[in-house]
Amino acid sequence: MPIPKGELAQLKRAKEILENPGIAAKLSSIAGSPVERGVKLLPRRWQKSVHSATEAALMKALDVAVRTLGDNARRAPSRDRMHKFAAAASGAAGGAFGLAALAWELPLSTTLMLRSIADIAAAEGEDPRHLETRLACLTVFALGSTRDASDNAAESGYFAARSALATAVTEATKHLAQKGLAKSGAPALLRLVGLIGARFGIVVTEKAAAQAIPILGAAGGAIINTIFIGHYQDMARGHFIVRRLEKIHGAEPVRAAYERL
Q1: Which residues contact 85 (CB under 8 A, 6 or more apart)?
Q2: How many CA within 13 A on the CB side of residue 27?
């Protein structure tokens, strides 16, 4: 059966979100110059710090996703503003210390974002108590960045990202179902975190470049983190709209309709 017009409108909204994230432009408006220029000016040692902070933040997020996400599963409207306020407070604290605070601020803000993503998933009909949904929440961090070199050029950025992660998500789900986090250094988990980190790290680097501007300070850090969490709330909304429609109509019809829009 064809997808009804109302649901096609929802799918169109999801595609507009997922294929046009635009976080670099928003950060540039705060930084006063193109973020890409700031990324190039970051010292190599800072780029290594960003990579380390990204990996640590995702490992922490994986731990939170598996151990506690969905303890209070709910289907009421998501509390986006509350989570943005918390992220802004985290960003204000981090902004006062610049890039030096990234190692502790990023895991905190990533955890806040993950809980907001789970909130959005629940509002779209998912059950965050299910392991498959929890990993779907984690993979939102791989959405909305520059396309990876391994992406299939024939696919949309969104579906290319999902395809790139599919095998790793399946392997990680199987490992966690059988062994949990008892062996958090297992290859299946490290591979999933590595693949997500390669994409998440692009946005984190853009965030770090914006935060590196000394004059921004605490107020700038709060604004940057509000944009940061807003970006992934948008990605989560689009992602879980697509997933909800896939459960109703099947993956292939929804994907075909998405590509036609």
Answers
A1: none
A2: 28
In sequence order, the 6+-apart residues with CB closer than 8 A to the CB of 92 are 218, 219, 221, 222, 225
Of 134, 198, 133, 202, nearest to 165 (Cα)?
198
Cα distances (angstroms) measured from residue 166 to each of 54, 194, 202, 225 = 21, 13, 20, 29
CA pair distance 44, 38, nearest whole angstrom:
13
Sign of CA dihedral 118, 161, 54, 32: negative
In the chain, domain spans: 5-260
- The alpha carbon of 200 is separated from its chain's Cα centroid by a whole number of angstroms, namely 7
**149 to 82, 167, 198, 235: CA distances (angstroms):** 36, 17, 11, 21
Tell me the per-residue pLDDT of 108-155, one tens digit each, with 9 for 90 and over: 888 888 988 998 999 999 998 899 999 999 999 999 875 555 555 445
Position with higher pLDDT, 14 vs 51: 14
Calculate the average pLDDT of the chain.
80
CA distances from 210 to 34, 67, 95, 108, 247 (A): 9, 33, 10, 18, 39
* Distance from the first to the final alpha carbon of the chain: 17
Cβ-Cβ contacts under 8 Å for 54 (sequence gap 6 or more): 106, 197, 200, 201, 204
Find out whether 78 and 232 touch, Cβ atoms under 8 Å: no
R_g of the chain computed on alpha carbons: 18
163-179 pLDDT per residue, tens? 999 999 999 999 998 88
DSSP state of 33: S
Identify the CA nearest to 189 among candidates 161, 165, 167, 168: 168
